Amino acid sequence: MTKKTSLRIGILEGDDIGHEVVPASVRIAKAAAAATGMSIEWVDVPIGRRALDTLGHTMPEGTLETLGALDGFILGPIGHREYPKVPEAINPHPILRKRFDLFANVRPTRSFPGIGCLHDDVDMVIVRENNEGFQPDRNVVMGSGEFRPTHDVTISVRVITVEGSSKVARAAFEIARSRRKKLTLVHKNTVYKLGCGMFVDSCYEVAKDFPDVEVNEVIVDTMAMRLVRDPQSFDTIVTTNMFGDILTDEAAGLVGGLGMAPGLCIGRGSIAMAQATHGSAPDIAGKGIANPFAMIESTRMLFDWMGHHHKIDAALGMSRLMKAGIDAALADPATRTPDIRGTGTQADMVNGILRGMEAAHMPA
Ligand code: ATP
Fold first, then answer.
1. Is the pTM of this model over 0.85?
2. Mutate which of 255, 258, 280 to test ligand 1's pocket (most atoms within 8 Å of Cβ)?
3. Cα–Cα distance measured from residue 300 to residue 302, given in angstroms and rounded to the nearest whole number
4. If you classify domain 118-254 with CATH, what class do you get?
5. What CA–CA distance (Å, rounded) separates 151 from 170?
6. Are 49 and 84 a contacting pair, CB within 8 Å?
7. pLDDT tier, 1 (very low <50, low <70, confident <90, very high otherwise)
8. Which of 22, 77, 147, 234 is the least crowded, having the fewest Cβ atoms under 10 Å away?
9. Which Pfam families does the UniProt record give (predicted)?
């Protein structure tokens, strides 16, 4: 196989603040690419409400084929709850994750000084299973994993498989191995003896290939409490879909809120998707105050992953440069948005990151 020297990356803005934070992320990535000599072809891919209004569908025909020919993509938040109730207005998230087998949602949580974190020295990664579990849009091929046999009874189905659990476990062990070699399995097998039991058993089976990683277990309700009290005790965490959904928002709350919660969806293939944890935040869209960190950091994670996966030094250089810029902007209230004790706007933060990158790139 010839070594990859350039990347094709999709830009999917999504909805509401997606039209702000995605272009901001691309601007920063382009500056980093120019500085490190990384060759990138950027491909605009319409999705979401704008695609519905202009092309008649929130995920127009040919989108999956276009994305399949790329190395990765940046997906902005999707505000599907506000979509009109028509068949053309679908939520693209689950389809994208399934189609590209993006079974692991990697969500880091890190505290920065001065931004209003509840704790200092938090540095952990929650790896959330992405394609099965309780979420009714992911656990069946047709129909929904929820149904109502009578007017006053609803039944929700949760799907746990050995394959899905093993895949996310392996991704989490690999991440743990590259960090402090500590992995916490979060579940509730005391009650969900079969479902969580299968998840835990699958994790231990995978653990045999990672004897250097220390494994422990925490029951999910205890984990919710311990994240508040001693989040520094954790390094890498792996859990099922819905537990991960809830715990990652809780973790975001520890370090300044949803604007500080990035994510990268990965699988076994070579496509990865940068996707922040937050939603489309219509309440602050267009005001120039949405915190772009989560989307920019998700984009940085995408290039870091590409750099390791394809062994491209320039992509790793982009990641290092972007980190230096982000750290510089977060250190100064004037280049932070109001949600993280800043006095600046989103544009101030983006400019602060660009200046920080320039300073880091200057020869000493
Ligand atoms: P979803 O279910 O789609 O994830 P949600 O219901 O969790 O969405 P969000 O859109 O994420 O809702 O917004 C929740 C709150 O967090 C809102 O008050 C919003 O303004 C705030 N928020 C979300 N993202 C950001 C951001 N990037 N910067 C600042 N505030 C944000």
1. yes
2. 258
3. 5
4. alpha beta
5. 42
6. no
7. low
8. 147
9. Iso_dh (PF00180)
